[in-house]
Backbone:
């Protein structure tokens, strides 16, 4: 997210110490989705669990929204 819009997520807010607990994974996913929403992405239909599971369709939706905000995709 910070690559698309610098300063969107404070790195101190991201859980990085391994191994991550299921709660920390959820927290990171929700942080990413709320940050995407804050920069103007339409993420209401994207669920954190789908991204955590690596569902390609949901990841592509999120990526396309980020690229739209970055003005790399129309």
Residues:
């Amino acid at each position: 997210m910070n690559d698309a819009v610098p300063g969107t997520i404070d790195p101190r807010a991201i859980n990085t110490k391994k191994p991550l607990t299921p709660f920390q994974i959820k927290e990171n996913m929700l942080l990413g989705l709320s940050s995407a929403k804050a920069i103007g992405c339409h993420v209401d239909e994207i669920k954190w669990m789908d991204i955590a599971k690596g569902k390609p369709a949901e990841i592509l939706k999120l990526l396309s929204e980020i690229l739209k905000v970055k003005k790399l995709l129309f």
The helical segments are 22-38, 48-52, 56-69.
